[in-house]
Amino acid sequence: MSLEQILALTIFIATYALALTRRIKIAYVSLTAAVLLIALRILTPHEVFTQALKWDVLGIYWGFMMVSIAFMDSGVPKLLAERILKVAHAEKHAILYLAASTAFLSVWMENVGVVLMMAPIALAISRRLNTSLFPYMVVIGIASNVVTTVTMVADPPSIILAIETGLKFKDFYWFLGRPGLGTLTVVAVVAALLTLLLQFRHMTRRIDLPVDDVPVTYGATILFVVSVAILAFGHERGLSPGIVGVAAGGAALWLNRRRFREMFVEFDWNSFAFIMGIFVVAHSLRSTGLLREFAGLLHGAGLKTPGLAMGALIWIAVAVSSFVDNVPFTVLMIPVAQDLAGLLGTSAWPLLFGMLIGTGSGGNITPVGATANVFACGFLEKHGEKVDLGRYMKISVPFTVVAVAVAHILLYIFWLR
Predict the structure, then answer these.
(1) d(Cα 36, Cα 42) in Å, to the nearest integer?
(2) 349-405: per-residue pLDDT in tens?
(3) Degrees (nearest 5) of the Cα angle 148, 149, 152?
(4) 332 with 285: CB under 8 angstroms?
(5) How far apart are CA 329 and CA 394, in angstroms?
(6) 330: nearest Cα among 311, 294, 356, 312
(7) Helix locations, 267-388, DSSP H
(8) CA distance 407 to 398
(9) Model confidence over 176-203: pLDDT tens digits?
C-alpha cells in the first residue's frame, strides 16, 4: 500500500469509529475528516466539489425531506393508516396491516417520518389491548426499511445507484428484458411481511380500534405526487434530479409557510452534513485505488463466479449495514461491484442489485443499524419499554433473512441463469 492509501484508509476507519461512538456530533467527525484529506493533499478542493460530493443526491435528500414534513403535516398519511387498521380483526392482523401500511408509505416518504407518524397508532392499539408496545414498534421500524429498493426514490441508496449508473424509474420494474430490482423486491417484501403472521400467530385477541376524525389538506399530497413523477420521468429527459429535489423542497416550504421556521429546525442537518463529509471520505478510497484492490481481494479469495460474487456482496452488505449507515456504504460498494464484475468478465447489474438489497435490509438486524430503528426504539424507551437486543433480534432476524433470501434467489433465477 502506498502512503496515500494508508492515510486514506486510516482516516476512513477513524471516521467510522468516532461516528459509531456518538460521543462527538457525527457531522463534525466526517467534515473534519474531509478537511484533513484536503490538507494532506490526498484530494484537491476541485476534486471534492466536482467528483466527491454527490450534489444530485444531496438536493433530493434535502428537498424530499421538506416535502415529507409537509406531507405528514397534511394528515393524509395518518388517515390512510387508520383506515387500513379499521379492517383488522385480531391483534396479529393489526401488526401485519400496520407493517404493510408502514412499508407502503415508506416507499414514498422518508423512513423516520413514517415511523414517527405510525408510532401513536401503535401506542393506541397496545393501550386498548393492554399489551406490550414492543412488537408493534419493532415491526414498524423494520417494515420502513425493507422497501428501500422498491422504487428509484424509496431511499437515498436507490437514488445513488440510479444517478451513478443511469437507471431510469421504469428500469426498477423491467430492465434489459428481465424483472427489475423493484419488481423482485416487492415479492421479497410480501414474503417478509407474511412471516409476521407466523411470528405472532399466538396474538389472536380481537381488536376494536375506532377511527379518529383526522383533519386533512391535500396540497402537500398533490405536490408529493407531482414531485415524484417529475423526478421519475424528468430524469429520463436529462432533467437534473438535484434541481427537482431543491424545487420540490422550496415548494413545500412555501406551501407550509406557516411552519417555515419549524421545518428548517426539524430537518436533520447533522445527518445531512455527515453524509457530505462521508461522500468525500468514501471518494478518497476510490481515488487512491483502494476500492479496486478490495475488489481484487474478493476475486482472489475465491469469488471467481458471478453467483458466488453476488452472494458474497449481498450478505457482506447485510452484515456491514447492521452497523454502518447504508448511504456511505452504497457509495463505497458501487465501484467495488463494478470492478469485481470487470474482473469476472460479467455484467455488473446482478452484483449491484444484490449489494443494494443487502444494504437496504441489513440495517434491520440491530436497533442501531438504521435511523428509523433508532427512532422506533427511542419511542419505546420514552414509554417505559426496555429495548432488549435478544428480543429485538428474535423479530428482526427472521424478517430480514426471509426478505434478503427471497430477493437473492430471484436475482439468481432472473439475472444469472
Answers:
(1) 9
(2) 999 999 999 988 888 888 867 777 877 888 888 888 888 888 999 999 999 999 999
(3) 105
(4) yes
(5) 26
(6) 356
(7) 269-287, 290-300, 306-321, 326-344, 349-362, 371-382
(8) 14
(9) 999 999 999 999 999 999 999 999 999 8
For the chain, give the longest Cα–Cα distance.
Answer: 66
- Give the residue extent of every domain in the chain: 3-416
**Four-CA torsion 410, 111, 364, 359, nearest 10 degrees:** 50
Helix intervals (H) in 133-213: 134-145, 156-165, 181-199
Half-sphere exposure of 182 (CA within 13 A, CB side): 20
Radius of gyration of the chain, Cα coordinates, nearest whole angstrom: 21
279-329 per-position pLDDT tens digit:
898 888 888 888 778 777 777 777 778 999 899 999 988 988 776 667 767
Range 216-220, long-range pairs (CB < 8 A, 24+ positions): 216/74, 216/75, 216/76, 216/79, 217/74, 217/75, 217/76, 218/74, 218/76, 219/74, 219/255, 220/67, 220/70, 220/71, 220/73, 220/74, 220/76, 220/252, 220/255, 220/256
**Using an 8 Å Cβ cutoff, are 26 and 275 in contact?**
no
Q: Which three cell numbers stand for residue 377?
A: 426504539
In angstroms, the Cα distances linking 93 to 6, 87, 98, 104, 197 are 53, 9, 8, 16, 7
**Identity of the residue numbered 300:** G
Nearest-5° Cα angle at 208, 202 to 209 = 115
Instruction: Please give the DSSP secondary-structure letter assigned to residue 181.
Output: H
Better-predicted residue by pLDDT, 371 or 147 = 147
What is the DSSP-derived secondary structure letter of residue 179? Answer: E
N-to-C CA span, the chain: 38
CA angle, corner 294, sides to 290 and 297, nearest 5? 140
pLDDT band of 110, cuts 50, 70, 90: low
Contacts of range 41-46, beta carbons closer than 8 Å, 24 or more positions apart: 42/4, 42/7, 42/8, 42/284, 42/287, 42/288, 43/280, 43/283, 43/284, 43/287
DSSP symbol at 110 = -
pTM for the whole structure: 0.77
Taking the C-alpha atoms of residue 321 and residue 331, their distance in angstroms, rounded to an integer, is 13
Entry field: residues in the chain: 417
Q: CA of 26: how far to CAs of 17, 32, 224, 375, in Å?
A: 10, 10, 30, 17
